[in-house]
Amino acid sequence: MLWLGGQPCGTPEQALAWIAWRAGHVADQLDDHLAQPAHAWIQDHPEHQRAIGQLARGITYALVICDGSVQYVLAATPGAFDPDGESAP
């Protein structure tokens, strides 16, 4: 199981699609020069394959988009998740 902001997600591919979808939303709100890295990531298919492999191996994948001192972190985390902050047994 993968988790996106406390919501379950079925596959690494679905998780990556969500990250790309949200990255587009974030980029749309930024000035062009700040949005360029997010747009480049959206088109970076080798990085997407690396992310899918990482998630499939049980490793969290995070994309960080910077807007000056603000950082947007879009992440998928494999494994059990408890919204109350406790790990599953």
Structure description:
The protein is of the alpha+beta class. The chain has one domain (2-78). It contains three helices and four strands. Strands 2-1-4-3 form a four-stranded antiparallel beta sheet. Helix 1 (12-28) packs antiparallel against helix 2 (32-42) and helix 1 packs across helix 3. The chain is globular, with a radius of gyration of 14 Å. The two termini are 15 Å apart. 19% of the residues are buried.
Main sheet makeup: 4 strands, antiparallel
The first-to-last residue Cα distance is 15 Å
| Strand order across the largest sheet | 2-1-4-3
For the secondary structure, the number of strands is: 4
Secondary-structure-derived class: alpha+beta
Percentage of β-strand residues: 15-25%
Low-confidence runs of at least 5 consecutive residues: none
Number of helices: 3
Order of helices and strands: EEHHHEE
Mean pLDDT score, rounded? 85
Give a short summary of the structure.
The protein has 89 residues and is an alpha+beta fold.
Features:
alpha+beta; 4 strands
How does the SSE layout of this entry go?
Elements: E1 2-4, E2 7-9, H1 12-28, H2 32-42, H3 45-56, E3 61-67, E4 70-78
Antiparallel strand pairs: 1-2, 1-4, 3-4
Helix pairs in contact: 1-2, 1-3
